[in-house]
Amino acid sequence: NSILNSTRSIVYLYNVGKTQIHFLNSGIYDQLGYSKFEMDTIGLEEYLEKIHPADQSRYKSHIEAVLLGREKKFTAFEYRLKKRNGDWKWYSDTIFNLKTGLTETIELVGYATDINAIRSKEEKYEREEIRLKAILENTREYYFFLDLDCKIVSLNKNAKDFLYDKYERNIFEGYSILEFLPLETASVFTEKFNYALDGAAIHYESQFQDKKGENKWYQFSYIPVRDKKERITSVCFVFMDMTEIRRTNKSLLELN
Predict the structure, then answer these.
(1) Distance between CA 70 and CA 85 in Å, rounded?
(2) Mean pLDDT of the chain
(3) In this predicted model, what pLDDT tens digit does every residue of 129-171 receive, in sequence order?
């Protein structure tokens, strides 16, 4: 018991025949705030009440899968447990059989490790990713996120529509952006892209002809994207049609 109580995880023993959890180490008290009286020898249904409603059916299914041998041994399962104050904490629970013979299961052992900090960060990143995606899908710019080999990791709807209009092809993640550029343009693109890989953010404007022969001005940016360790993992290539803005600025200058 002293060894089990010294671990920072929650360890419990579940008697299958009696459908009771008859041992809980001190982790359940230290981390979730319950007293020994509240949690001493509780039934499975009582333990389920401490599990988030959205996770309860998955937890029961996981228990059944372990009992029937459908889960690999030491398969971890993630779910939320309620603290005594009503807050929720994420745990990664490894559940496995204790057997007296070849087939008879008498107990299940659960070893639940606190992963709340990790899941909180993941949820934060997911929220930020959803918010960023919403912004990118409602902007005038054309966004391409490219890996180190110029292959498209993701792009917004504007970028997809632009390339389809220009090349009459549907563009998907995994394509190299160089496939869609004329040779002379690809050469300039590669040069700027390599500058970004070296850590420089590149911004410039240039003029191109569209399919109708109209000259249009575009602003181009190559922005290095770094991970938490400041390593460059991709390049954000952005461009925007500046033709109307330039025309407006020109008209304003002529009025003055």
Answers:
(1) 36
(2) 82
(3) 666 666 667 778 889 999 999 999 988 888 888 888 877 777 7
| Burial bucket for residue 237 (CB in 10 Å: 0-12, 13-18, 19+) | buried
Q: Are 135 and 129 in contact (CB under 8 A)?
A: no
3-state SS, residue 109: strand
The mean pLDDT of 72-81, rounded to a whole number, is: 79
Residue 21 · residue 47 · CB < 8 Å: yes
Assess contact for 47 and 77: CB atoms under 8 A. no
Cα Rg for the chain, rounded, in angstroms?
Answer: 29
**CB atoms near residue 90 (< 10 Å):** 21
* pLDDT (mean) for 5-27: 79
CA gap 184, 206 in Å, rounded: 14
- DSSP classification of residue 211: T
pLDDT, residue 80, reads: 92
Determine the average pLDDT of the residues in 70-75: 66
By residue count, the chain amounts to: 256
